[in-house]
From TrEMBL:
GO terms for molecular function: nucleotide binding. Residues 191-328 form the GFO/IDH/MocA-like oxidoreductase domain. Pfam families: GFO_IDH_MocA, GFO_IDH_MocA_C3. This is Gfo/Idh/MocA family oxidoreductase. It comes from Chitinophaga fulva.
Length: 444
């Protein structure tokens, strides 16, 4: 029998889906389009624009240009000219004999905070790979301009951004625009085979889940005298929540999403703990270096999620799912019964590069004039799951999914400009305030 908690959680999700569907309902649903409708030119060339020219953007563009389809990079946008130019050169070098697919004249290289609008206008497909704080406004604009989208995870850093993405996701569906989100485990052969067998009942009913993203330290870029505070934070975007969301959102979302995927649900509540035990200097902004979250689903199933950035500590990036009949070890690509007998072992020789597969499948669908991918809502749900985990570890409080979703909590600056003040500022010693569990409050 469906629990009252499940009914409440599902009603909250249904109410929001209904609201966003009404928003999209003002437009007539468009039919499946022909190739001619999909592409901005008369040829079969699929034109792409890259928005966000860091390492992940460079990689994503290279993967898009490595597909079998006739794809050309025609526009690029980034806040910083140096990053754009480095990305342009790196993409051409990575493509080798396919470098001619990079067709970006100087007039199509746009920089600054509004550069994305100009680049989007020139493309059929948009790749969104800026720091995730910008993702909601970029996604919203891409859908407004009727573009297919590949966007990296996470899709927002705060609940207000999640609402914006969900509204744009509903609009994308009404326009039949393909959207793929870079939660690449869903495009990985081993995970797909494990999921298929879980759905077929090989492990029985799920009882609990454990997910990890534990690793060492990451990069830091030194402050330069000529930087404004806005530029400094954007160049060190990982350490500021309005841009990154903390590493539980930016990285651990992958593992949290696997839990949601195999459970076919999203968590109702999150409670946990975290802090700054090792990474404590001013150069690390306001984020924590460790999080441990207990996610509870409506039927009482618990997913324990841990992530940390500690130098010289053991690394572990994996998921383990326990059912009534057995358990799944995702990294091993293995299912065993409770006595240790192997029930299924994926042949690792059949593993794919899921980062490439995301683009292979997306561009194959677009080239055929198919509407096949609607990842945005799922990406938003995975992101909100990670966000409520951050809110729980920061505050020390139990955070409810629906309360967070409807809170209006917005971390973004009022103005996007290099001379504008970011949402968080350093004190006289250059230190940034960070959350204190038990003291920091988000909701009454």
């Amino acid at each position: 029998m469906e629990s009252e908690q499940q009914k409440f959680h599902d009603k909250g999700r249904r109410d929001f889906v209904k609201q966003t569907s009404m928003l999209a309902g003002g437009l007539l649903a468009m039919p499946i389009l022909s190739k001619a409708n999909y592409f901005s030119g008369s040829s079969d060339v699929i034109k792409i624009a890259l928005i966000g020219c860091g390492g992940r953007g460079t990689g994503a563009a290279t993967q898009a240009l490595s597909t079998k389809e006739n794809v050309q990079l025609v526009a690029m946008a980034d806040a910083f000219p140096d990053r754009l130019n480095d990305s342009y050169n790196n993409i051409k070098e990575a493509l080798g004999d396919k470098a001619s697919r990079v067709n970006v004249p100087e007039k199509n290289k746009f920089t600054g905070f509004d550069a994305y609008k100009q680049a989007i206008a020139l493309a059929d497909v948009v790749i969104l790979t800026t720091p995730p704080g910008f993702r909601p406004i970029h996604f919203e604009e891409a859908i407004r301009q009727n573009k297919h989208v590949f966007m990296e995870k996470p899709v927002a850093t705060d609940p207000a951004g999640i609402k914006k993405v969900l509204e744009a996701a509903a609009l994308a569906k009404s326009k039949k625009l393909n959207v793929v989100v870079g939660l690449q485990r869903r495009y990985q052969n081993s995970y797909r085979e494990l999921y298929k067998r879980a759905q077929d009942g090989m492990v029985g009913d799920i009882l609990s889940m454990q997910v990890w993203w534990n690793q060492g330290a990451l990069w830091v870029k030194p402050r330069k005298p000529e930087y404004t505070e806005m530029e400094y934070q954007m160049r060190n975007w990982y350490y500021f929540n309005w841009l990154c969301g903390d590493h539980i959102v930016e990285q651990h979302i992958h593992n949290i999403d696997v839990g949601n995927w195999f459970k076919n649900a999203t968590p109702v509540t999150a409670g946990g703990m975290g802090g700054r035990a090792v990474r404590t200097g001013k150069e690390y902004g306001e984020i924590f270096d460790h999080h441990f979250v207990e996610y509870r689903y409506a039927d009482g199933v618990v997913m324990n999620a841990q992530c940390r950035h500690w130098k010289d500590a053991p690394s572990k990036v994996d998921e383990e799912i326990v059912g009534t009949k057995g358990r799944i070890y995702c990294d091993k690509a293995q299912i065993v019964d409770h006595k240790g007998k192997v029930l299924y072992q994926f042949d690792k020789k059949k593993e794919n590069n899921p980062y490439q597969t995301e683009h292979d499948e997306l561009f194959a669908a677009i080239a055929k004039g198919e509407y096949k991918f609607a990842d945005a809502q799922r990406g938003a749900e995975a992101t909100l799951s990670a966000i409520i985990g951050r809110l729980a570890t920061y505050s020390g409080q139990l955070i409810n999914w629906n309360t967070a979703l409807n809170s209006g909590l917005d971390l973004q600056p009022k103005t996007y400009a290099f001379d504008a003040q970011p949402p968080v500022m350093p004190d006289a010693s250059g230190n940034y305030a960070y959350a204190k569990p038990g003291i920091t409050k988000y909701f009454s």
